[in-house]
Structure formats: structure tokens, C-alpha cells
Amino acid sequence: MGRTFAGGTFMPPIAEPMTNPQPVIEQDTRSADELAPTYYVICWNDPVNLMAYVTHVFMKLFGWDRQKARKHMLEVHKKGKSVLARESAEKAEFYVHELQKYKLHATMEAVE
Amino acid sequence: MRLVAQTSQSWQYHLDQSEADILLGMLKQFPFNEMEPAQISRKGQDAQAAERQKLLAELLAEHRQELRKLGLGLLAADKWEQRENGCRLTLDAGARETLLQVLNDIRVGCWHALGEPELEDYRPTAKKELWQYNLMEVAGYFEANLLEPEE
Lengths: 112, 151
Fold this sequence. Notes:
The complex is a heterodimer. Chain A is an alpha+beta fold. Chain A has four helices and five strands; from the N terminus they run ββαβααβαβ. By secondary structure, chain B is an alpha+beta fold. The A-B interface holds A 46-50, 52-53, 55-56, 60, 66, 93, 96-97, 100-103, 107-110 and B 38-44, 52, 55-56, 59-60, 63, 97, 100-101, 104-105, 107-108, 111, 116-120, 136, 140, 143-144, 147-148, 150-151.
């Protein structure tokens, strides 16, 4: 129904039907193996990094809230390691670089 | 050292004069130790892992150079205010992060120089060990105080 104005009912003109162009989807030429998250980012325990510091770094780097960051920190502390992420090689390497800049003992390990 | 004021953008700490003198000395002399070797993977031993290892070592060396420059920036007069009973140190988020990283680099570097011991029952004996151990503990003291408001 059209909108009603003081002078009567206004009918909007009927638009010409439009045909949306089909989006062009580029094919990703990388293999499924390359795209799959095939590396674990692992943080290992050490006796030197302070617990509060490790929590701080996890929050800063992964954008986690304190509760999640603390959970992983405690896992590192009590179990000796924590898997922080499962990522492609490129992203896993990035995270390891950043964690090691903070002097945390982090490595990337292939998912078997 | 204690937090005396905080906004979303800045942190202000009060340091006794002796604390300020020690922290300033640490910033001036950083880094104290050679960089410890870093490992990108425990299992990966192939050519790709070796390449990644090399890249990591280069990146960490660059980062330490940058950290040294940023650490010296923390000595800027506008960050320190002399008070009757000590100093006020005002840090924005970036400067606070730099200070944390410098302190932790010192702490981990000292631990590595000590042979990466378990610290619970560790007691230094030799003079050089005492120096590294005390420096490690002092860096940890400042780190803990910087982070205390978060806990």
C-alpha cells in the first residue's frame, strides 16, 4: 500500500525490474591441505615468566577476556603446556613470533 | 612502586627514590645479556622448519634492537616527575607495554644466563650468579607491580 498524504493516496512509480549482476567468485587455487588449520600454537611452561604476565600477554595477543586467558595460563602452569590456537602455517608462525617477542616459550607443531 | 592513578589511556606509578634509581639504571643499561636461542618447533626438523627458525632469530634480533630504542624513550623527562618522597612515572598504554617487555627480557635473559634452573629451590652461590639472580628478581618485582592492578 502507498503512503497516505493530506491530498490522497500517493502511489510510488513502479520501478523497472532490475537484474543484479552475478558476483564473480574467484577460485582459490591453494590446495585443501594448504588452507586447513594444520598447526597447533603451543605455549610451554617455564619457571620464570610470571603468571600475571602470561595472562596479560594472552589477553593482549589473542584478544581474550581475563577468564579465558587465565584458564590457558593455568593450563600451561599445571599441565606443562596449552594449545592456544589451531591455525594455518602462516598464522601459526605469526603467533609464535609474537609470543616469543614477549619471551614466552611458544612453538608451532604440525597437527598429526 | 605502586599505582596511584589510572585512566583508560594512562597509568601513574609512585616509586621511592631508590626504586626509581634502580629502574632508570636498568633502562639505561638494557640489554644485559646475550639473546638466548629461540626455537620455533620442537618436532619440525625439515628444511621448512630450518627456514622458519632462521626467520624467527632475525625477527627477534630486530625486535630487541627496537625494544632498546623504545626502552631508552622511557627515560624521557616528561614521563618522570620528581616528588619530595620519590618519583611519579606516567605511562601511556604503549610505554607501559614497552616497560613490561624490557623487564621481562631482562628477567628471562638472567634466568637463561643462570642455566635455566627451576627457581623454587634455587640458591645462587657464585658472585656472577648472585648478580644475575638479583637482577632477575628485581625485574620481576617491577613487572609484578606494573601488572598488579590487573590482578
